[in-house]
Amino acid sequence: MTNQPVSMSTTNRKGRPDPARRMGRFGMIMFICSQLVPVVVLVDVRYLFVGSYVSAQANQPVALFVALLMAVSGAMAWTVRNSATQGRDQVARVKWMVLLGAGALLGVLYQWSVRFMSPGTRYGEVFYTMTGFAVFYLIVGLVGLLSYISRVRLVKSSSDNYWHMEAVALLWAGVSVIWIVTYAVLYLL
Amino acid sequence: MAQTNVAPTSTRAAQGGKRRVMPPVLRAFLWSGIAFVVVNTFVDVVDPFRGHPFVTGPSATFGWVAAVIGWLLGVGVWESVALPLFGYPDTWREKSAGWRRYFEYSTDHKVIGLQYLGSAMGGFLIAGAVAMLMRVQLMSNHLTIFRYPTNYLTAVGIHGTIMMFSVANVALLGGFGNYMVPMMIGSRGTAFPKLSGISVWLVPAGILTVLFSPLLGAWTTGWRGYEPLASQDANGILFYYLGVAALTMSTFIVALNMVTTIMFRRARGMTWNRLPLFAWGQLTVGLLVLIWIPEIQTTFVLALLEKLIPFNFFAATGSVMSYLELFWLFGHPEVYMIAVPAFALWNEIIPVMSQKSLFARDWAVIGLVFVMMLSGLVWAHHMFTNIRNSELLPFSFFTEMISIPTGFAYMAGIGTMWKGKIRLNTPMLLILMSMFNFLIGGLTGVLLADPMVNLQLHDTFYVVGHFHYTVIGSLVFTGLAGVYYWLPKMSGRMYNEFWGKFLSIVLFLTFNITFSQFFLLGLHGMNRWVPAYPQYLQPMNFEVSIFAFFLGASFLGHFIHIFWAWAKGPKASENPWNARTPEWFTTSPPPRNNFPVEPEIVSSLYIYGSSQPVSVQFPAEQELAAAKDPDGEGGPVQ
Amino acid sequence: MDVVGFGILWVVLSILGELGVRVIIHNDPLYYTASNIGLMVENAMDFLLVVLVPIFIFVGLTLIWSMIRFRVKRGENPILPEKFVRNNKWFVGSWVIGSIAINLLFFLHPTASATEQFFAMENPQSPQNQQAVIVDVTARQWEWIFSYPQYGLKETLNANGQDQLELPVGRSVKFVLRSYDPYHTYDQYVDVIHSFWVPSWGIKEDVIPGEIRSIYITPTKLTSFAQNPMSRVQCAEVCGPGHPWMEAPLNVVSTGQFQKWIQYQKNLQNGLS
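YS: structure for the whole thing
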């Protein structure tokens, strides 16, 4: 029930996060949840068109490596989010997240560029569609992380009570979940 | 003259970046053009399978993405959001007055609301003009003004797409949602004003994309983009997908902003029991949007890839039906995204104009919520002619049942009017007309909900009549009512009662004469998407067209009247209708932060009576503080 | 009393409305019905109209009644009572229960009953369907091709060289619907959704590429395209630029006439080949 002109820098009251912060979190979580809808559609498409078939051409080691990178990165994002609520800057860790994310991106670009999978096959269609979506979200997430790294050089994180950091960490955690689901659905299940 | 003007502006721009060299919209066009050409050329260069022309399917797609980003940055997002996001200082100076602030990025939800309304009105006029062309064509049973049938079908697609995604989804949600909902809940702003300031500029981008889609070739599918026809079409269909992507993104952001605003920024005392119905409508629709808009966006990306790569998901060798299912899974909730805010607005305006307590408010809210929940269970009634026989009955069941919660909106409205003190002015008249038209839309829908009757009526002009009754009947009539109702609030001026009523009556009559005959045409065997048809249907079509032109003219008349009232109308008092919702407890037009101080809601907004206390109060100590802070800034508004 | 006056007016108008519905039913709300399924659709529609008219009049009348009876003059400032009625158990209760009851009624009849009837008509095991004339319908962009495998006819044409559908009256017909293009130069399976619709038969069935669907219909009237243009096969789903012209005349003739026509088509086919 906030009606005061609000800014993200209001201090905590009685241990509860201030309303503006809760509002931002709510919006970000709603956004991430809504982006699970495309994932559901794509998972449907996968099972509808190819069942649980996994192509023999699929490059399992690279895919596993990419998924692991994103899993580690996502776990780091969660710790960054926790630090944000406690007001600790974690720019070094965010830089590592970017690195891991860029590694994952390169892994997929490698898979695409050598065309293990023909886009003319059913599994190939599903593969390119699902990884394409994942890459799109990854790029959005990377822009977010880079904006934080750039911002922290010029402005103190405490100026917005670490909200920027928390927001990009939440977003990145969501992106890594999408990547892990994509990997599991494409290669395991 | 020109030279002397240019020199000082550019030096000032060099000094502090405070003066902009160019009007933002112009800069947006320039940046988007440059971005398109650069990225288009780049894709041409790297594309190993490039065809002959300069603008190919892939290059147009990537070029378009860059163009939209350029467009958004150009209108002011560059200085106000993009740079600050990366830590650079915010050099954007938001204008607080003047018409120019409507033509650039803004974080004032009232400016954004009017930008949405203006875009919706622009889209309505464009798509309406296209409809007039279609009616000219249909005056004869063979091709006349359209040289090829593809041209006519492209016109149908443009009309439907712009009307659906940039008018129906925008006017009440983006327009009145942004403008009114924060004020109705007593808030001094929205939850995500920056996001909202960006999203509104996606609407003109989307409209222009769809409007100019024929530049890449005609497309024949209508607004639904059915596969596999869509992947046979020329590249124009790409701009359909992309334009819709921009428009739906805008609607999505509106929903995110509205849901969060209603959840977190209600004034003190604005309990869920007191929440205005229009806010309830926005909340329920917001949830629909957050679920189903991402769904259709994904589907359209799949369809885009189907065309571009090409994939074969939805071809004869894949599953044609999957596209239909995915489309209508969104397609039916879409109908309620359009209609639910209208239902809510009926019960917003009726108690005010009847000066009577809202009847059965709980049921009205229950109706909105249940419509929302059931709307996800009815999609396959658009597919009775192609689903399995065993699937007919369940979908028919839920389709029929959804009329029950819809009816609650009528029950509340009728109960409120009964023995009320009705002031029959233009907004009230338009609401009554809207209820009447939607009644026809709903009852003709009962026939369509019956699978057997549907097998005959599906894909005929009967269906065209039905959905024009539901969409124009609910959204357009109610939207106009909303414009007249809130005109004194938004502009501080009053419309002319005679012209308002006169134009409304003309609109009502021409609308009904035009579209009621659609039912007869459909029953008589007129199918959809045809620029040519059997001779025996020609006389009635000719006559329908004549009335359609009058209908178009009466819309134009309304718009002219509204613009006149906005600029030249007599001054209105602050609360001319004696309404109790908080938006009326401030000056007209409202100040930047809506209220001088934080309002407090002290009694129900919908209970009328001689001894009812005023519903909105401004706490005294805050008034005192406001006196010391006369600009009403009160701190930074995020 | 407003309630009583309203009630009387509603009953009177409903009676008038029902009389109007009788006239419409008498003249066939579907304009022209010439098949067993069409008759069923017509019955369903008649029933729905009968029930819907009083509902339409009830709601419409409340709007008009309120508008006239409860309006205050311009500029007049009425004195509001202390409190307004904000709920009425009887009104709300009967509205809620009434709307649920009407919808359940509609679901049972005509929805479920007519659909069951339809399923029975479509049962391939039923005696008349086992005797059915089989017509293979091929929808391509943009033409309906009719072939009669029982008679060895590949494509039936009329004197102008247009595709023509001709059927005996009173006998079940099995349409086997497919969408593909036998004349396509390199890919027969490139085709789109069409919809097989005969306006006078009261039914349409979408023809989906990659699927084979069948439907049984019994024409009940001797008719021809020349006699009533609703007697035509029309594509009802947009299928590209040729969509408006994707139609074929339909003639329903006596059994003897049908045999003659079959013979004529056979001669035509042999003469051509």
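YS: worth flagging: Residues 1-14 of chain A have pLDDT under 50 and may be disordered.
IM: good catch. Also Residues 19-188 of chain A form a domain with the Four Helix Bundle (Hemerythrin (Met), subunit A) fold (CATH 1.20.120.80).
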